[in-house]
């Protein structure tokens, strides 16, 4: 006679991208380039090796990790920190759109005042939005 397990006893399914985030976190903590087996061990080892390899390969296709040959296998390394990976995702979304200007305009108009200030600082713009600090861009 088979017994059923309750929903609470089943392993929780990961959310989309959750495993990628965990793999990237492990790679960022690595002392250098590491093997898929090393990553698997850091994630608890209950994942199949092929699952870890699939995630690493997907991350490589997204340019989120780099790999180098080590004998017949690869050693893996995070290509960037979390901010760099978020920027890569934003760039991919922007690249997929036909009207980049419209997407950027919508993005910028939805920024909080603090985020807008950070963006202005990064672009070297004064607070009033003009390049030279005057209201209409003319010399004073």
Oligomeric description of these chains: single chain
How are the strands of the largest sheet arranged?
1-2
Q: What is the β-strand count?
A: 2
Point out poorly predicted stretches: none
Indicate the structural class.
mainly alpha
Give the distance, in angstroms, between the N- and C-terminal Cα atoms: 89 Å
The coarse silhouette is elongated
Strand content: 5-15%
Sequence of secondary-structure elements = HHHEEHHH
Tally of separate helices:
6
Percentage of residues assigned to helices: 40-55%
Rg over alpha carbons: 22 Å
Q: Please give the domain count.
A: 2
For CATH, the homologous superfamily of the largest domain is named as Winged helix-like DNA-binding domain superfamily/Winged helix DNA-binding domain
Query: Averaging pLDDT over every residue, what do you get?
Result: 83
GO molecular function: DNA binding
Keywords: DNA-binding, Transcription, Transcription regulation
Pfam family, one: Penicillinase_R
GO biological process, one term: negative regulation of DNA-templated transcription
